[in-house]
Amino acid sequence: MILNFNLADFADFFKTYGQMIVTLCQVAVTLFIGLAAWTVSKKQTKIAEAKFCLEMYTHRKDIFIKIFKILTNPNNRGETDFEDMIDIIPEASFLFEKDIAIFMHEITTNLRRIHVIQESIINNNADIKQTNKELENIEKWFSDETVLLRARFKPYFDFSTSSNLNHFGKLLSKFKLYKMPTVKFRAPKDNK
Fold first, then answer.
1. pLDDT per residue over 58-85, tens digit each?
2. Whole-number Å distance between alpha carbons of 84 and 67
3. CA angle 103, 152, 105 (to 5 degrees)
4. Is residue 151 a part of any domain in this protein?
5. What's the pLDDT tens digit per position in 125-170?
6. Does the residue 28 lie in any domain?
7. For the stretch 91-112, what's the b/e string if a residue is b when 16 or more beta carbons lie within 10 angstroms of its beta carbon?
8. Total structural domains within the chain
9. Residue 72's domain spans which residues?
10. Backbone phi, psi, residue 78, to 5°
């Protein structure tokens, strides 16, 4: 069979279907570019989520460690610890829910009570039995809170849900941008 190729027929075909072919090529290129942009944006979103979780974890861990050191080191409970705790309360209020800020205020109150008792002992203005009893009660409170500390902070180190996030994390969760695997947190081991 001999192919009869007529240039006039080709010109008619191109007039009829040419614009449609050009439009389909443009649509295909646009879809390809759109798909590539969508893929890149998804990857950037996952990277931003991971970075956000890492920053939240790092800041929360730093605050946890400061609180842990204050609760577990009775020899260093003084004015410096009180000032350190006061300095990190605003940051903790942003990173955690209100319960941690309230807990930190309780710690500062007890640190202040220790400082006042120590000052009264130094100035000989205190009843020794009464101050010893009060110091024992405060130390018992610190000891009890140390035992409960890990359980109190555990929900804040679980990044699989957004229920524990404050401000920015809740905003991310509204836009369904926040779904990370659980980060397991372990408190420092006590060397006894």
1. 888 888 888 888 888 777 666 666 777 8
2. 10
3. 5
4. yes
5. 767 788 888 888 888 888 888 888 888 888 887 766 544 444 455 5
6. no
7. ebbebbeeebbebbeebbebbe
8. 1
9. 45-174
10. -155, -155
